[in-house]
């Protein structure tokens, strides 16, 4: 399985403006084949720092995601929303154990 | 390496009350030996849903975390804050690839 974690930053005063755009890409991605989890969440200690968590069944599913129209729409907003400090790390994992 | 992802829920109107308590356990845990990442973050589409992301160097480091005093302090607040729907999954991973 693939787990991805990372973050990006939005100026704290633009998070509410960005929320509808983030919701669109999150909901669109959650509906993709092979997407097990996709969330954007604002750090409770650092306003404007948005954590990204993803889980995918395969690299093929992830490759398809990269050309999804909702992802392109979201990226088009980066300059206007002031998105910065983007980072994302991909981990190859086992199936996981629920604690 | 170990990656952990999960979430818990706080009534949305208690998130601001909970913030100081969450900050204490997050900062305390980030300072622990073997902790590579520890964050709590509120879902941008679902107020009150707090995503947990952790990375640890080893099971030994994670075992030590389980008895940390800041974690005990945080757990003592669960009833008062109405914490529910707690879940956490542990993945054994490779070192990851930054995208």
Description:
The structure is a homodimer of 99-residue chains. Chain A is an alpha+beta fold and 99 residues long. Chain A has one domain: Alpha-Beta Plaits (2-Layer Sandwich), CATH 3.30.70. Helices cover 35% and strands 36% of the residues of chain A. Chain A has 4 helices and 5 strands. Chain A has helices spanning 15-30, 59-65, 69-76, 78-81; strands spanning 2-9, 35-43, 49-56, 84-92, 97-98. In chain A, strands 2-3-1-4 form a 4-stranded antiparallel β-sheet, with helices on one face. In chain A, helix 1 (15-30) packs antiparallel against helix 3 (69-76). The mean pLDDT of chain A is 97.
Task: Report strand % of chain A.
Answer: 35-45%
SSE ordering of chain A: EHEEHHHEE
Strand adjacency order, main sheet of chain A: 2-3-1-4
Number of helices of chain A: 4
Percent of residues in helices of chain A: 25-40%
Secondary-structure-based class of chain A equals alpha+beta
Offer a concise description of the structure.
Chain A contains four helices and five strands, in the order βαββαααββ. Chain A has helices at residues 15-30, 59-65, 69-76, 78-81; strands at 2-9, 35-43, 49-56, 84-92, 97-98.
Sum up the structure in keywords.
36% strand, homodimer, globular, 35% helix, 99 residues, 4-stranded antiparallel beta sheet, 4 helices, alpha+beta, Alpha-Beta Plaits
């Amino acid at each position: 399985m693939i787990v991805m974690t990372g973050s990006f930053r939005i100026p704290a005063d633009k998070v509410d403006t960005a929320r509808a755009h983030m919701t669109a890409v999150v909901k669109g991605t959650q509906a993709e084949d092979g997407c097990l989890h996709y969330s954007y969440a604002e750090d409770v200690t650092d306003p404007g720092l948005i954590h990204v968590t993803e889980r995918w069944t395969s690299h093929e599913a992830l490759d398809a995601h990269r050309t999804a129209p909702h992802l392109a729409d979201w990226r088009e907003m980066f300059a206007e929303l002031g998105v910065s400090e983007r980072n994302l790390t991909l981990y190859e994992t086992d199936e996981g154990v629920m604690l």
